[in-house]
Write a structure and sequence with these properties.
Length: 213
Amino acid sequence: MIIAIDGPAASGKGTLAKRIAAHYGLRHLDSGSLYRAVARDTLAGGGDLTDARAAAGAASRLDIATLGDPALRTPGMGEAASVVAKHPEVRAVLFDYQRNFARAKPGAVLDGRDIGTVICPDADVKLFVTATPEERARRRYLELRQIGVAISEDEVLDDIRRRDERDRNRSVAPLRQAEDAVLLDTTNLDIDAAFKAAIDLIEAAMGQAGRAG
Ligand code: CDP
Protein backbone atom coordinates (compact mmCIF):
# COMPACT_ATOMS: atom_id res chain seq x y z
CA MET A 1 0.00 0.00 0.00
CA ILE A 2 1.37 3.41 -1.00
CA ILE A 3 -0.20 6.69 0.09
CA ALA A 4 1.01 9.90 -1.59
CA ILE A 5 0.48 13.21 0.19
CA ASP A 6 1.37 16.45 -1.56
CA GLY A 7 0.66 20.09 -0.92
CA PRO A 8 2.13 23.57 -0.53
CA ALA A 9 4.53 24.70 2.21
CA ALA A 10 3.46 24.13 5.80
CA SER A 11 0.11 22.65 4.81
CA GLY A 12 0.39 20.04 7.56
CA LYS A 13 1.30 17.18 5.19
CA GLY A 14 4.11 15.98 7.42
CA THR A 15 2.10 15.70 10.61
CA LEU A 16 -0.76 14.03 8.75
CA ALA A 17 1.55 11.65 6.91
CA LYS A 18 3.19 10.56 10.15
CA ARG A 19 -0.15 9.85 11.82
CA ILE A 20 -1.56 8.05 8.78
CA ALA A 21 1.56 5.87 8.58
CA ALA A 22 1.27 4.96 12.28
CA HIS A 23 -2.47 4.22 11.85
CA TYR A 24 -1.90 1.73 9.01
CA GLY A 25 1.47 0.36 10.22
CA LEU A 26 3.29 1.80 7.17
CA ARG A 27 6.69 3.50 6.90
CA HIS A 28 6.87 7.26 6.46
CA LEU A 29 9.16 9.41 4.31
CA ASP A 30 9.20 13.21 4.56
CA SER A 31 10.66 13.82 1.11
CA GLY A 32 11.15 17.53 1.87
CA SER A 33 13.87 16.56 4.36
CA LEU A 34 15.88 15.12 1.44
CA TYR A 35 15.93 18.50 -0.36
CA ARG A 36 16.61 20.33 2.90
CA ALA A 37 19.57 18.02 3.61
CA VAL A 38 20.95 18.45 0.08
CA ALA A 39 20.80 22.23 0.58
CA ARG A 40 22.57 21.92 3.96
CA ASP A 41 25.33 19.74 2.51
CA THR A 42 25.78 21.92 -0.60
CA LEU A 43 26.30 24.96 1.62
CA ALA A 44 28.56 23.05 4.04
CA GLY A 45 30.76 22.03 1.10
CA GLY A 46 31.14 25.67 0.08
CA GLY A 47 28.93 25.15 -2.99
CA ASP A 48 26.43 27.53 -4.53
CA LEU A 49 22.76 26.47 -4.33
CA THR A 50 22.19 27.55 -7.92
CA ASP A 51 25.05 25.32 -9.14
CA ALA A 52 23.34 22.11 -10.32
CA ARG A 53 26.58 20.10 -10.27
CA ALA A 54 27.46 21.05 -6.71
CA ALA A 55 23.93 20.30 -5.50
CA ALA A 56 23.69 17.00 -7.40
CA GLY A 57 27.07 16.01 -5.94
CA ALA A 58 25.75 16.68 -2.45
CA ALA A 59 22.62 14.67 -3.30
CA SER A 60 24.68 11.69 -4.44
CA ARG A 61 26.69 11.72 -1.18
CA LEU A 62 23.64 12.26 1.04
CA ASP A 63 23.69 10.33 4.33
CA ILE A 64 20.09 9.33 5.04
CA ALA A 65 20.95 8.99 8.75
CA THR A 66 21.22 12.80 8.95
CA LEU A 67 17.62 13.56 7.87
CA GLY A 68 16.49 14.07 11.47
CA ASP A 69 18.93 16.97 11.94
CA PRO A 70 16.98 19.78 13.72
CA ALA A 71 18.95 22.37 11.70
CA LEU A 72 16.92 21.28 8.66
CA ARG A 73 13.72 22.72 10.12
CA THR A 74 14.70 26.41 9.90
CA PRO A 75 12.98 28.70 7.36
CA GLY A 76 16.38 29.43 5.77
CA MET A 77 16.84 25.75 5.01
CA GLY A 78 13.32 25.51 3.54
CA GLU A 79 14.13 28.39 1.23
CA ALA A 80 17.50 26.84 0.30
CA ALA A 81 15.77 23.47 -0.31
CA SER A 82 13.42 25.03 -2.85
CA VAL A 83 16.42 26.38 -4.77
CA VAL A 84 18.24 23.02 -5.04
CA ALA A 85 14.88 21.32 -5.74
CA LYS A 86 14.70 23.17 -9.08
CA HIS A 87 17.65 21.23 -10.51
CA PRO A 88 16.55 18.19 -12.54
CA GLU A 89 19.97 16.63 -11.71
CA VAL A 90 19.19 16.76 -7.99
CA ARG A 91 15.71 15.30 -8.45
CA ALA A 92 17.13 12.50 -10.62
CA VAL A 93 19.64 11.50 -7.92
CA LEU A 94 16.92 11.41 -5.23
CA PHE A 95 14.39 9.55 -7.39
CA ASP A 96 15.48 5.94 -6.81
CA TYR A 97 15.74 6.31 -3.05
CA GLN A 98 12.15 7.59 -2.86
CA ARG A 99 10.79 5.03 -5.30
CA ASN A 100 12.49 2.15 -3.46
CA PHE A 101 11.30 3.47 -0.12
CA ALA A 102 7.73 3.52 -1.39
CA ARG A 103 7.88 0.02 -2.84
CA ALA A 104 9.47 -1.77 0.12
CA LYS A 105 7.13 -3.86 2.27
CA PRO A 106 4.76 -3.27 4.01
CA GLY A 107 4.25 -0.03 2.05
CA ALA A 108 4.64 3.62 2.89
CA VAL A 109 3.23 7.09 3.21
CA LEU A 110 5.35 9.71 1.42
CA ASP A 111 4.76 13.43 1.64
CA GLY A 112 6.14 16.19 -0.57
CA ARG A 113 5.34 18.09 -3.77
CA ASP A 114 5.62 15.53 -6.58
CA ILE A 115 4.84 12.22 -4.88
CA GLY A 116 1.50 11.68 -6.64
CA THR A 117 2.67 13.11 -9.97
CA VAL A 118 6.26 11.84 -10.39
CA ILE A 119 7.56 9.58 -7.61
CA CYS A 120 4.50 7.34 -7.14
CA PRO A 121 2.04 8.00 -9.98
CA ASP A 122 0.62 4.53 -9.22
CA ALA A 123 0.00 5.20 -5.49
CA ASP A 124 -3.10 3.52 -4.06
CA VAL A 125 -4.36 6.79 -2.60
CA LYS A 126 -3.32 10.39 -3.32
CA LEU A 127 -4.18 13.33 -1.11
CA PHE A 128 -3.50 16.98 -1.87
CA VAL A 129 -3.47 18.87 1.41
CA THR A 130 -3.98 22.64 1.42
CA ALA A 131 -4.95 25.52 3.71
CA THR A 132 -4.93 29.27 3.14
CA PRO A 133 -1.44 30.85 3.18
CA GLU A 134 -2.41 32.85 6.31
CA GLU A 135 -3.45 29.73 8.22
CA ARG A 136 -0.33 27.85 7.11
CA ALA A 137 1.82 30.78 8.22
CA ARG A 138 0.09 30.85 11.61
CA ARG A 139 0.73 27.15 12.22
CA ARG A 140 4.33 27.21 11.02
CA TYR A 141 5.00 30.32 13.13
CA LEU A 142 3.82 28.47 16.26
CA GLU A 143 5.93 25.42 15.37
CA LEU A 144 9.04 27.55 14.83
CA ARG A 145 8.48 29.45 18.04
CA GLN A 146 8.37 26.14 19.91
CA ILE A 147 11.78 25.14 18.60
CA GLY A 148 13.20 28.55 19.47
CA VAL A 149 13.42 30.12 16.00
CA ALA A 150 13.01 33.91 16.24
CA ILE A 151 10.84 35.02 13.31
CA SER A 152 7.62 37.00 12.85
CA GLU A 153 4.39 35.57 11.46
CA ASP A 154 4.63 38.01 8.52
CA GLU A 155 8.11 36.74 7.66
CA VAL A 156 6.82 33.16 7.74
CA LEU A 157 3.97 34.17 5.42
CA ASP A 158 6.45 35.78 3.00
CA ASP A 159 8.62 32.68 3.11
CA ILE A 160 5.82 30.25 2.29
CA ARG A 161 4.39 32.45 -0.47
CA ARG A 162 7.80 32.77 -2.13
CA ARG A 163 8.47 29.05 -1.84
CA ASP A 164 5.03 28.07 -3.18
CA GLU A 165 5.55 30.37 -6.14
CA ARG A 166 8.97 28.86 -6.91
CA ASP A 167 7.70 25.29 -6.40
CA ARG A 168 4.63 25.84 -8.64
CA ASN A 169 6.51 27.50 -11.46
CA ARG A 170 9.60 25.36 -11.81
CA SER A 171 9.98 23.34 -14.99
CA VAL A 172 10.59 19.91 -13.40
CA ALA A 173 8.11 18.21 -11.07
CA PRO A 174 6.22 21.41 -10.16
CA LEU A 175 3.88 21.47 -7.20
CA ARG A 176 0.43 20.53 -8.50
CA GLN A 177 -2.49 18.33 -7.59
CA ALA A 178 -2.43 15.01 -9.48
CA GLU A 179 -5.57 14.46 -11.53
CA ASP A 180 -6.54 11.48 -9.40
CA ALA A 181 -5.70 13.10 -6.04
CA VAL A 182 -8.36 14.00 -3.49
CA LEU A 183 -8.26 17.56 -2.15
CA LEU A 184 -8.22 18.06 1.63
CA ASP A 185 -8.51 21.68 2.76
CA THR A 186 -7.52 21.88 6.43
CA THR A 187 -8.02 25.65 6.87
CA ASN A 188 -10.83 25.11 9.36
CA LEU A 189 -9.71 21.77 10.78
CA ASP A 190 -7.45 21.15 13.75
CA ILE A 191 -4.99 18.26 13.55
CA ASP A 192 -7.41 15.65 14.97
CA ALA A 193 -10.20 16.72 12.61
CA ALA A 194 -7.77 16.79 9.65
CA PHE A 195 -6.53 13.30 10.53
CA LYS A 196 -10.09 11.97 10.73
CA ALA A 197 -11.00 13.61 7.41
CA ALA A 198 -7.87 12.10 5.80
CA ILE A 199 -8.69 8.60 7.07
CA ASP A 200 -12.26 8.94 5.75
CA LEU A 201 -10.96 9.99 2.32
CA ILE A 202 -8.42 7.14 2.27
CA GLU A 203 -11.05 4.54 3.26
CA ALA A 204 -13.42 5.87 0.60
CA ALA A 205 -10.68 5.76 -2.06
CA MET A 206 -9.66 2.23 -1.05
CA GLY A 207 -13.28 1.11 -1.11
CA GLN A 208 -13.73 2.44 -4.61
CA ALA A 209 -10.52 0.79 -5.80
CA GLY A 210 -11.70 -2.49 -4.26
CA ARG A 211 -15.01 -2.30 -6.14
CA ALA A 212 -13.30 -1.37 -9.39
CA GLY A 213 -10.87 -4.28 -9.07
O1 CDP B 1 7.54 21.45 5.49
P1 CDP B 1 7.39 22.36 4.31
O2 CDP B 1 6.10 22.13 3.58
O3 CDP B 1 7.61 23.81 4.65
O4 CDP B 1 8.59 22.04 3.30
P2 CDP B 1 9.22 20.63 2.89
O5 CDP B 1 8.15 19.64 2.58
O6 CDP B 1 10.24 20.23 3.91
O7 CDP B 1 9.97 20.98 1.50
C1 CDP B 1 11.01 21.93 1.42
C2 CDP B 1 11.21 22.25 -0.04
O8 CDP B 1 11.70 21.09 -0.70
C3 CDP B 1 9.95 22.64 -0.83
O9 CDP B 1 9.68 24.02 -0.78
C4 CDP B 1 10.28 22.15 -2.24
O10 CDP B 1 10.99 23.11 -2.97
C5 CDP B 1 11.19 20.97 -2.01
N1 CDP B 1 10.50 19.69 -2.20
C6 CDP B 1 10.36 19.22 -3.50
O11 CDP B 1 10.72 19.88 -4.45
N2 CDP B 1 9.79 18.00 -3.73
C7 CDP B 1 9.36 17.25 -2.71
N3 CDP B 1 8.83 16.05 -2.97
C8 CDP B 1 9.47 17.72 -1.39
C9 CDP B 1 10.04 18.96 -1.15
